[in-house]
Amino acid sequence: MKMSATSGxxxxxxxxxxxxxxxxxxxxxxxxxxxxxxxxxxxxGTQGGACGYQNTFALGYGTNTAAxxxxxxxxxxxxxxxxxxxxxxPKWGKNWCWNYARSIVVTATNLCPSGSNGGWCxxxxxxxxxxxxxxxxLARKEGGVTPIMYRRVRCARRGGIRxxxxxxxxxxxxxxxxxxxxxxxxxxxxxxxxxxxxxMYRNWGxxxxxxxKIDGALTFRITTGDGKTLILYNAVRxxxxxxxxxxxxxxx
Length: 252
Known about the structure:
The chain contains three helices and 14 strands.
């Protein structure tokens, strides 16, 4: 049977993906996906987003961030998670990867909505829309939509978990960021100086809300996607004010 040039390239991409998957630890750790880029060469135009981080530079995430397709974003549950990406395959017979041995780690900070980027972020695709500096550290930007292998990895953070306090006296909304370990926060409870534990709910992204009036020093109980739980005693000290950011301990 005669094979077309297009079929030949697709087969080559598949074989290369499988071989890299084998070298890097097999199909259980690594998965196939694709990357695109957005924003300017210095990372401009990539701030804000569906995780609520606003300024990722100020929060320490830099340009190694990613807007995830809805399959990976999970309604905001993946915010703060870390992924290792490796460029794996030629596109249309051309090698757009700088180096197959090179990889980067990115933090999930945004959603790549369905219908954007030519439909690459539509379900069930596993897709990462990267700031241009992150993309070009793996592949030539001329490649556009580029195949990768990806896997979840632990997040290495400097300092402790941080809490930015927002809301009003009757509506507390806390941005939880700089979370190490699994990185993705799945459950949060809060304890005031004069109250017991109160469950918080995800308002959106990494913003967690409590409608119970909470006073005094604040203690948080955080559970991440790997099931680990950390209690941060008095992470926010008595006398706190809205708009302040406080730092506690960290997952190890």
